[in-house]
Amino acid sequence: MKYLITGATGDVGSKVAELLVRRGERPRVFVRDAPKARSRFGDRVDVFVGDLASPESLRTALEGIDELFLVNSGPQIPARDQTAATAAKTAGLKHLVKLSSIDVQHGLAIGAWHERGEAAIRACGVPFTFVQPAGFMSNLLAWAPSIRAEGVVRASTGGGRRAFIHSDDIAAVAVAALTSRAYDGESLPITGPEALSFAEVTSKIGAAIGKSLTFEPISDDEARQRYSRISSSAEETEAHVALWRAIREGRLATVNNNVERILGRKPIALDRWLMENAPAFQ
Ligand SMILES: NC(=O)c1ccc[n+]([C@@H]2O[C@H](COP(=O)([O-])OP(=O)(O)OC[C@H]3O[C@@H](n4cnc5c(N)ncnc54)[C@H](OP(=O)(O)O)[C@@H]3O)[C@@H](O)[C@H]2O)c1
Hints:
alpha/beta; Rossmann fold
């Protein structure tokens, strides 16, 4: 099998490529920045320089490929998944694994973009698997500046809970889907081991770094103002505000055992992620 991995300089895609290399494969990585890919993988992968905004570059990269791992982000997800679906069909791909989101099941915010992307892929007729993670543990790194500067975490999630998942688990599930036919045609919603409120997560970070931290609930308006300073568009800001509101309303607290069912081991706990990442908060 020949694999094309997109998002390979990012969190999940880089781990997918690495796991394939460890299995003795030589994946092709589809990246915008060849030196960044070389510094991550050395000579263990084939590097193809392209852009998911360019259908032509994806078509060329797919020549000779059997399996595609697809990562698209932001409001462009529906259009770019449609482009990838068309290219996958033209290339006669055997299987496509899309990094989606558990929030497709709620049809809100970022989940709605993924829902439309999934629909385009279903319609193209190429066998697919949708890997649908809950919120990533790595999102918590966004809290590092206010924790370091003020010892405070601010969020509009109230007492709502989320079962954060480690990206090692997401990548391992994606590789299980890429390397067997067992999950063809399936959606795989995956979560971490327990749903925690953001106040509980704040206190766990505090314990990991030996510092007392404060969780400060904020309104949707304040969350909107704060996120708009770093957001690339108003659409992206509104999607995040809606996501946090849904967490606050208790709609995104699902915990399931799919990681254990697929990988034969428990999902990684937040405590391990905190051991790996504590220096970022100090
Ligand atoms: N964060 C969450 O809680 C969460 C939850 C569920 C689902 N998701 C989904 O997970 C995905 C993000 O995964 P991630 O965190 O692994 O991503 P990430 O670390 O942000 O990396 C994104 C990757 O995509 C590449 N990329 C961006 N634009 C590109 C383009 N136009 N052409 C080619 N490559 C491009 C980036 O390349 P460069 O290095 O060149 O920038 C990078 O390798 C999104 O679909 C998101 O909706 C996230």
